[in-house]
Amino acid sequence: MKSLKVRTYYADLREHELVTQAGKALQFMTGNANYPTPAPDLADFEAAYTDYKTKLEKANKGGSRLDFRQKKEARIVLLDLMRDLATHVNLTAKGVGSVLESSGFIIANLDRNVGIPGIPQRGRLIDGDNSGTLKWAVDAVPDVWEYEYCLGTRASAEAPISWEASRKATQSYGNLLAGLTPGVVYYVRVRAHNGKGDSDWCEPFSRMAR
């Protein structure tokens, strides 16, 4: 029998769905004896929830480009904290359904025949807002909890790519790479992860940092 878990990936939710889900998790987790020491701290989670909700309302009421950018940044912060808090729920509940349900998070659908995710497609890099930054994106992969990516460089056109340690992202687009050296060509590879495992790495894609 498969162990029950809550979802840790919520980047596929629409804006107001995310607000509703985050608010529900905050309400259910507050004072919950099943989770006496939640990580991250609920004060930090509540601050991120309130910040995203406020910036969402401001941006969607005729906000400026800056308002929309701040809304997007606040969403990323909230999604990261939701992933971390949901992971804490899974580690603490150890598959006990009633304890998982008490968290307010969504129980992962284990009945549907979900397999190992497909390889991310159409990888691309675009210039960031500042010098020495790039943003990567791939097409979203269904039934994915998170993405793992690596940044790499090569000494020459004939040399193999030297990959850095992998990092995690909760969404398939707009992921910032900072601290890059202008004039250097950077490579990125991405793979998708869910409860069944990891996809293969996608073909590396590249761009010169400006």
Description:
The protein is α+β, with helices and mostly antiparallel strands and 210 residues long. It has two domains: 15-101; 124-208, Sandwich (Immunoglobulin-like), CATH 2.60.40.10. It has helices at 15-29, 42-59, 65-93, 97-101, and strands at residues 124-127, 134-137, 146-153, 162-163, 167-169, 175-177, 185-194, 197-198, 205-208. The strands form two sheets. Strands 3, 4, 5, 7, 8 and 9 form a six-stranded antiparallel beta sheet that branches. Strands 1-2-6 form a three-stranded antiparallel beta sheet, with no helix packed on it. Helix 1 packs antiparallel against helix 2 and helix 2 runs antiparallel to helix 3. The radius of gyration is 19 Å and the shape is globular. The mean pLDDT is 91.
Compact description:
It contains four helices and nine strands, in the order H-H-H-H-E-E-E-E-E-E-E-E-E.
Provide the helix percentage: 25-40%
Uncertain regions: pLDDT < 50 for 5+ in a row? none
Main sheet specs: 6 strands, antiparallel
Separation of termini?
52 Å
Reading the helices and strands in chain order gives HHHHEEEEEEEEE
Secondary-structure-derived class: alpha+beta
Q: If helices are DSSP runs of H or I spanning 4 or more residues, what is the number of helices?
A: 4
Number of strands: 9
- Roughly what is the average pLDDT, rounded to an integer? 91
- Overall outline: globular
Overall number of domains:
2
* Rg calculated over all Cα atoms: 19 Å
Q: How much strand content do the residues show?
A: 15-25%
